[in-house]
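Form 7-S
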Amino acid sequence: MLILAELWMHYRDDEDFVDFVEYNDLGLPLAYGVANNLVESLTDTGITMVEETWDLLLSGLGVEDTGFEYLDDLLDTGLTEE
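Output:
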């Protein structure tokens, strides 16, 4: 969730992510809320939204989940595989 939270905070106004952010207008803020202890827990629906947001990010970047810890690592991997 940290990666999604970081993406939402630092890239939500970035032209390259505008469609992604608009489409994931619930999943990204939910991830941010959990990552920053603003939300104690998510409902099953909330968890599903965050998981779908993560899957869409990986799909959009064309990478598989290999246990990324940092947004920069994920973005670097996505850029080098294009």
